[in-house]
Specification:
Radius of gyration: 21 Å
Distance between the termini: 41 Å
Number of strands: 0
Structural class: mainly alpha
Number of helices: 20
Strand content: under 5%
Length: 440
């Protein structure tokens, strides 16, 4: 199953990683992210993939087949519901990307760089809803084609395009006047920039970019052939994911330094780096419109492959657990995407006065899935492996046909101790911070 290695590993790295790295410490954020990826991330990818291949089922079925009834509800359905909640608001952001890509293609890049453009755009409910629906239909169309004919074919086509475009844009970015300070900020860890929020955010990004605790890895593991090395596939993900994350950072952060001189307010801009600051950077460049087209093509490709992986996981769950046909499952997921996605699409416009614990709908769904449900799902997986299945069974699955398990000691230590404890700490910290009980 090439899908395991090709589909999900770019998720969140192009649009999400750079702004989090810029906001939460640059090099120190990158260092913590890498340390988490090769320990916590490695362990969870191995566990979820082995669980999927062992049971040949999607998350709910995998948990039920591996344990007792309570695991179906506690772990399986949490893993299954997360993609269903993520893909609607993710599709809204994908719609924003379509809007900007069309703007650059039609020669309106200067308008995109104007002050207030992005705020005006997301406040226009009809405009956001249209591009959101376009992105959702694109995702569903590929899903209807089937996972092998759809996901893998699109991924193989997009992979070399993603790599080439990211290298071109990163090379352009780091050679801008003043950009080397941005390179230093991003690559050289500065302990002075460290905070507990750096760790919390790096952990959240790791969940997002490695597709941990979303059911995706279990689903694609269920497609994996027995003669494919789980550890080899995991190592490929670790390496390629980290490289794409670093490339994304080198595309955006040095350009921001070049444009703003390292203004702290600009670095704290969050998601606005892509939709407000970066268009201003492109406007200041020669051939900026061309670079803008290339950049947003790259982001759109990454968003589409991520959305496909999320939707495929949800569709597989409905097929396996409810006995639905693929078309019926995809149709129901499509309805959910439209209903929940419309809340996020309209949340900064007509529904801006409606908030949940002080958050707009898009921010709330991101918080709910990334900071609450994913840590819970990770804890459930750790408990299933250690207390129900047994770590030895995972080892047997990994080492079939003489396949390697070189970091077995790391896996055993992490899955039994640090992974569940750390996930619980992140869960409590994130919820407490969101509710205003603590400030990080």
């Amino acid at each position: 199953s090439r899908g395991l290695g090709d589909v999900y590993k770019r998720q969140g790295n192009i649009w999400r990683f750079p702004y989090l790295a810029a906001k939460y410490g640059g090099g120190i954020f990158l260092l913590i992210y890498i340390l988490l990826a090769v320990t916590f991330g490695y362990t969870m990818i191995m566990a979820e993939t082995a669980l999927g291949r062992m049971t040949r089922k999607s998350p709910v079925g995998a948990f039920a087949a591996s344990g007792k009834g309570r695991w179906r509800a506690f772990g399986g359905w949490i893993n299954a519901v997360i993609p269903i909640l993520i893909v609607p608001y993710y599709s809204v952001i994908g719609g924003w990307v379509i809007k900007y890509l069309v703007g650059y293609i039609t020669g309106h890049g200067s308008e995109l760089a104007q002050d207030g453009y992005f705020s005006s755009f997301i406040a226009n409910g009809a405009s956001v809803e249209i591009v959101f629906l376009l992105f959702a239909l694109l995702t569903l169309g590929i899903i209807f084609a089937g996972v092998r004919n759809g996901v893998e074919r699109v991924s193989r086509m997009m992979m070399p395009v993603l790599v080439v475009l990211s290298v071109i844009i990163a090379a352009y970015s780091v050679t801008r006047p003043g950009a080397l300070e941005g390179v230093k900020y991003f690559l050289v860890p500065n302990p002075a920039n460290f905070s507990w929020m750096t760790v919390v955010t790096a952990m959240g990004q790791m969940f997002y970019s490695l597709s941990i605790a979303m059911g995706i890895l279990v689903t694609f593991g269920s497609y994996m052939k027995k003669d494919v090395s789980i550890e080899g596939s995991t190592e490929n993900v670790e390496i390629f994911d980290t490289l794409i994350a670093m490339m994304a950072g080198l595309m955006i952060i040095p350009a921001v330094f070049s444009f703003s001189g390292g203004d702290p307010d600009t670095l704290q801009a969050g998601p606005a780096l892509m939709f407000i600051t970066i268009p201003k950077v492109f406007e200041s460049m020669e051939l900026g419109s061309l670079v803008g087209v290339l950049f947003f093509v790259l982001v759109l490709f990454a968003a589409v492959t991520s959305s496909i992986a999320l939707t495929e996981s949800a569709v597989s769950t409905f097929e396996d657990e409810l006995g639905w046909s693929r078309k019926k499952a995809a149709a129901v997921i499509g309805i959910i995407m439209v209903l929940l996605g419309s809340l996020s699409a309209l949340g900064y416009g007509p529904l801006s006065g409606v908030t949940v614990i002080g958050m707009q709908f898009l921010d709330f769904f991101d918080f709910l899935t990334n900071s609450v449900m994913m840590p819970i799902a990770a804890i459930a997986t750790c408990l299933l492996v250690t207390s129900v299945i047994g770590v030895e069974k995972i080892e047997e699955e990994v080492t079939q046909n003489g396949q390697p398990f070189r970091r077995k000691k790391v896996f055993n230590f992490m899955i039994r101790t640090l992974c569940p404890v750390f996930a619980a700490i992140i869960l409590v910290s994130s919820v407490a911070n969101a509710l205003g009980w603590i400030s990080m």
